[in-house]
Amino acid sequence: MCNVSEDHVLISKAVSAWYRHYGVPWDDHASSFLCDVAIEMYANGCRSVEMLAAILIADYAGVAGTRVNAPSSDAVH
């Protein structure tokens, strides 16, 4: 039986919300990047799916926004 912790579920839901918002297909690199960012935000006290998802959506516009050398959404807007 799989023992998935509550924090893993929270991060997964936030990343899934990002995918739904942008309507993009699954991307391994983007998912890894977004999970790493969400884990860091969680470690810094962000504990709600809504807040994590909102920050991911605002800061990383689509798959291109998850690439290391891609401009941030701040540079695009």
Give your account of this protein's structure.
This protein has 77 residues and is mostly helical. The protein has four helices and no strands. It is globular, with a radius of gyration of 12 Å. Residues 73-77 have low confidence and may be disordered.
What would the keywords be for this entry?
77 residues, mainly alpha, 4 helices, 62% helix, globular, disordered C terminus
- Continuous helix count: 4
SSE pattern: HHHH
Q: What characterizes the major β-sheet?
A: none
Structural class: mainly alpha
Question: What average pLDDT do the residues reach?
Answer: 84
Radius of gyration: 12 Å
Strand residues, percent: under 5%
Extended strand count = 0
Could you estimate the helical fraction of the residues in percent?
Answer: 55-70%
* Distance between the first and last residues' Cα: 46 Å
Poorly predicted tracts of residues: 73-77
The outline comes out as globular
Outline:
The chain is mainly alpha-helical. It has helices at residues 6-22, 28-43, 49-59, 73-76.
Q: Layout of helices and strands, plus pairs?
A:
Layout: H1 6-22, H2 28-43, H3 49-59, H4 73-76
